[in-house]
Structure formats: structure tokens, C-alpha cells
From TrEMBL, chain A:
It is found in: Cell inner membrane. It is a peripheral membrane protein. PROSITE patterns: ABC_TRANSPORTER_1, ABC_TRANSPORTER_2. Keywords: ATP-binding, Cell inner membrane, Cell membrane, Membrane, Nucleotide-binding, Sugar transport, Translocase, Transport. This is Carbohydrate ABC transporter ATP-binding protein, CUT1 family. GO terms for molecular function: ABC-type transporter activity; ATP binding; ATP hydrolysis activity. GO terms for cellular component: ATP-binding cassette (ABC) transporter complex, substrate-binding subunit-containing. Belongs to the ABC transporter superfamily. SMART domains: AAA (SM00382). It comes from Cohaesibacter marisflavi. It comes from the Bacteria. Residues 4-234 form the ABC transporter domain.
TrEMBL record, chain B:
GO terms for biological process: transmembrane transport. Part of the ABC transporter complex UgpBAEC involved in sn-glycerol-3-phosphate (G3P) import. Probably responsible for the translocation of the substrate across the membrane. PANTHER family: BLL4140 PROTEIN (PTHR43227), SN-GLYCEROL-3-PHOSPHATE TRANSPORT SYSTEM PERMEASE PROTEIN UGPA (PTHR43227:SF9). PROSITE patterns: ABC_TM1 (PS50928). Gene3D superfamilies: MetI-like (1.10.3720.10). This is sn-glycerol-3-phosphate transport system permease protein UgpA. The complex is composed of two ATP-binding proteins (UgpC), two transmembrane proteins (UgpA and UgpE) and a solute-binding protein (UgpB). Residues 71-283 form the ABC transmembrane type-1 domain. Coiled coil: none annotated. Keywords: Cell inner membrane, Cell membrane, Membrane, Transmembrane, Transmembrane helix, Transport. It holds the Pfam family BPD_transp_1. One of its GO terms (cellular component) is plasma membrane. SUPFAM superfamilies: MetI-like.
Amino acid sequence: MSNISLDYVRKSYGPSEVIHGISGSIQQGEFVVIVGPSGCGKSTLLRMIAGLESITGGEIQIGKRVVNKLEPAQRNIAMVFQNYALYPHMSVFDNMSYGLKIRKVPKEEIRRRVEETAEILELTPYLKRSPRQLSGGQRQRVAMGRAIVREPDVFLFDEPLSNLDAKLRVQMRLEIKKLQERLGITSVYVTHDQVEAMTLGHRLMVLNAGSVEQFGTPIDLYDKPATLFVATFIGSPAMNILNGTVSEDASSIILPEGEVIPLGMRLNAQAGASVNLGMRPEHIRLATNGNALFSFKSDVIEELGADTIIHADFGKATSSMAVRLDGIHRVSSGTQFSFAIDPENLHVFDPESGKRIN
Amino acid sequence: MIKRVHFPSSPLPYLLVAPQIAITIVFFIWPAGQAMYQSFLIEDAFGFGREFVWFENFEILFEDPLYADVFIRTIFFSVMVAALSMFLSLILAGFADRVVKGATIYRTLLIWPYAVAPVLAGALWVFMFNPSVGIIAYWLDLIGVDWNHFLNGGQAMALIVFAASWKQIAYNFLFYLAAMQAIPKSMIEAAAIDGAGPAKRFWTIIFPLVSPTTFFLLVINIVYAFFDTFGIIHAVTEGGPAGSTVTLVYKVYSDGFIGLDLGGSAAQSVILMAMVIGLTVIQFRYVERRVDY
Ligand SMILES: Nc1ncnc2c1ncn2[C@@H]1O[C@H](COP(=O)(O)OP(=O)(O)OP(=O)(O)O)[C@@H](O)[C@H]1O
Ligand SMILES: [Mg+2]
């Protein structure tokens, strides 16, 4: 077990820089998820920690060692690949024991450790099979087993669940979480799936175009997204973003149609400056007598049983808007609704920099 | 029941395959038939009469200890050529697979020997190893090896093994490289993370994974060494000294065209033909059914 620290880590392929100075530290035993859209550099960053990509600038430390110049083998890490990368010509047992054999662990101990790990992962009946004879989920487990059996300082995962079907993915997600808690090994997990990220990670590093947008707990990211990007990336349905301007006294936002949304605080912004106002669909309530802040006519209604999602085109200047109401609301489209929202659930962003300003 | 697709009958398909069939008949089937017929005849020494003798030519061959020697020598030669050229190309492909910079140049250079005609390749080696003017013979002399493949049968054999292997390296290299590049990169990376160094990865991961290619190339190389090295042997040693580099194919030529024993030579080529057919069957049955993971 080790902590990992990244200090202004950069990566260029030729003239193009794909990782622009990422810093952050990962505590011992922590489960950190790197999440972001396709092509943002998640795999690249993970592979730099693993030693599979060279580091163009900055420093990576695992434990007390700077590992920039160390071979993958010397970093005492284990990695689970998206395609599992099992050795097809070896049995499950040999796959799991390969790393131990190379490290010259005594035969008896290898056998004990592999059998123990197989027990945890329910792989015991398959030890003699070749990977070809396993299902996707079982292969995934073997890949995990190969990592666990080595008892590494750090686990690295690169989208290990993306080749599984939806149901198995949810199941394996839970297993990985339980396993990580049980073993307490520092883990870095890459995914582009925000639900996976939110459920697995102690903390999430949200990456966008090679830079960190925010690094915090799932609740931090949900409650106080630091940027417009994080605000829309985390949460489903995505946060509604409305255009608005700062009021005279800087304590409310005026929407294009003239509605005034009080913020319950004073913004550090010029009166009349344009801002983006974010509201999560699940934070918007139906207004009860007289506290309505804005209203619109519903368009499409999705009744999901547990909740109802109302979609609408809001005003002239904004795109579509979604509201999620608990329970079943039998409404037809075209109904006029009035809504309210608590000031602490409002998110205000500077449209220029995308940064949060409230 | 197998469903058949019926096409309206038309002479066009027959016309389209006719040239291929004609070529096969004129250049392969007919000579093969001739050889087969010839192998049943014994001509008298002056070429005036011939006698149909059934399998007598074969009986003579199988009783001839010289033929057995040539057979064993050919097997030795083939195994050496296959082993040497496959081993070298495996190693070269292993390096080429790792090269990042200048990979194309490196690969192109390695493919060149394949484009050199066998006789030229042979001439090249003869020249380099020429006891009086050859550069390698000179170097060998410096380290105390007295090289003269015109006199020393063992050295002559070594020389044709080198020349024949060198010629085949490019071919093997291409197949090995293609096979290695088909191995998912993440598998190699997984092994690296598991702690295996480059050599360990090569022998425990890459080599086993290219084993279908190894088997395929083994058959191809044996066939090559058996049947396709006449040009090289002819250019390098002409079977000498004292017949120490005569292989089966070379013996067909020297018995038939030099010794003018047409019947015996034809019988030998029939035996070779049977072997080619055998090897081809092996190749179809075992090699084409690729092992995939
Ligand atoms: N070998 C390479 N040469 C040049 N550019 C590369 C190379 N590898 C990756 N890149 C670029 O680096 C960027 C980040 O790639 P990376 O694989 O880390 O993305 P990712 O976040 O893992 O995406 P995904 O979710 O699709 O896996 C991409 O824009 C990609 O084009
Ligand atoms: Mg990736």
C-alpha cells in the first residue's frame, strides 16, 4: 500500500501536448476514479502512473519513490486492462501465478496465494481452464485475480467493465468496491461512465482535454461543481444551464424572460454581467402558492414510476430544460407549471472561464 | 440435405479457368506423367533401346547405400536450414517488433535478400568465402580457421546451409513480424507489469503466441530446403567436394543430366513428388487449421 502523488505531470506526443500539468495526491488505501469524456487523456495518465508511457514533464511518486524513470516491473503496481489482456496460452492458474513465478516466490506459496485469491473471486472451478473457455465476466475476474494475487502497492484499472453487459457491469462494480475496501489497496480507476465513477470512487478526478476540472468526493462534485464542465458532466439527467444576468444588488439572477431568482447571497460580480445559472432537475420543485420563481409549459413527459421527468423549452434564449419530480404525476404535455428552487441548490458560473462564482 | 445453388449452365466459367488448367497440364501434369513413365524404363547406355521394367529403378535406388546417404544428408541439411533461418528471423522479428524509430527502413532492409535470385545469392556467398580472395575466409584465417570449402566437405555443407538460410530469412521474418504485430499490445504490457523483462516476455509470451506461425514456417522451410535449393547448391558447391553437398534434388539433376541415368533420375523425382504431396497434405490438415486464441 502506498500513496501516489502527481506533481505537474505533463505528456506530449511530438508537438501536441495531451496532458497539461496535472497535480494531485492520492492517499494510502484511497480509491480514486479518473473520469472524463473520450480522448481527454485518462488512459494516458493512468499509463504514465503504470510506467507504460514516458513522462514528458513533472514528477510521479509512488510511496516515497519518484518513479519517473522506473520500469513498470519496478513500481510494484498491478493493472487490469479493458480487454483483460489474459495470456491465452496459459491456464487460469498460470495466468494468475505468472507474476509470482517471475518474482521467484516459492512454489508452495504461489499455490496457496492463487487458491486463496481464486476462492475470493469464485474462480476455483476454473483454475485449470484456458481463458478462451471463460465468459466475459469470468475473464474479467481472472484479470482482477492476476492483479490481486501479486499483493501490489497500487491497483490500476483502465475501464475494466466496459466490455461487459449492463447487468454484469453493475454487479462487478459492486464486487470491485467491496474487494477494494476489503484489501485496502490504493486504487486508481479510469472510466468515462459517471455513474460508475460516482459509485466507486472515494474521490473523483474529473479530466477534460488533459486538465483537471475538479478533484473531490462525489458529494463535492455534485453539490459544488467547480466548473460548468463538471456541473453538466456529473448527474443524470444533466444539470439545466440557463443564461441570465446579475441583478443590480448582485444577490439574484435575472433570466431573459424577466424572472428573478434570488441567490440568498451576494455575488462578487458586476451588475448586469451575464452568467450561467445551473439547476439540477431533481432540485426543482413544483411551486406551492405564491413562491413560484418561474414557469413553463411542459413538452415531453417521461413517467419512470419512481419519478417523473418533465421536459420543456424554457424561454426564448435557453435550450431545453428538465425537471425531475418524485413519484408519479399524471400530467399531459402542454400543461403550464410553476416551479421553485432553494437558493442553496443554485450554481452560478462565469460563462467566460466556466468557473463557479457563487 | 445440402442445398445447392443452381446457375444456368454456360461455357463461360470453363473458358475462364481454361488457361489455368492448360498451364497446369502443360507444365505440371504432363512432365509429372512423363517422369512417372520414365521411372518405369531403363535405357541402354547408348540411348538406342529402352525397356519397360516396372519398379526395378526404385528397387535399385532403395538398395543403393549412396541414396540412403543422400537422403540422410538432405534431412540434415533441411533441418539445419529450417532451424537456422527460422531462429534468426524469429530473433530479428522480435527486435523489429520493438523498434519504434526507423522501423520501415529496418524492415525494408531485412526483406531485400528475398528479392535476390538464388544463383546470385549463391555467387555472393561463394565469393565471400572464397579461400583465396574471400573476405570472410580471410577473417576466419585470422582467428585460426583454415577455410576451404573446395576441399572440406563439412565446411562446404556449412556454406550451403548459411547461403540457403540467408535466402529464406526475409520470408520467415515477414511472417514472424506479422504474427507478432497481431499480438495485442496490452498483453505484452501486462507481462511487463507482472515483472517480466524483454527476454522473458519474448520467450514466455510472444514465442508461444506465434507458435502457429512457427509450425507453418517449419513446413514451408523444410519444403524449401528439400526442393528449392538447387540453384544455391549449384552455384556454391556443385554438389562437391566428392558429393558431400549433394541433396536429393541435386542428385536428380546429376544422375539425370550428368550421369544420363534417366530412369533412375526419374524414379528419384517421383519419390520427391510423393514427399511434396505428403508435406502439402500435412500443411493443409494441420497448419491451415490455425490455432486461434
Ligand atoms: N501514441 C499516441 N500518439 C499521439 N497521440 C496520442 C497517442 N495516444 C493517445 N494520444 C492522444 O492523447 C489523447 C488522450 O488519449 P487517451 O487514450 O488517454 O484518452 P482516454 O481519455 O483514455 O479516452 P477513451 O475514453 O476513449 O479511452 C487523445 O487525444 C489521443 O488522440
Ligand atoms: Mg482510454
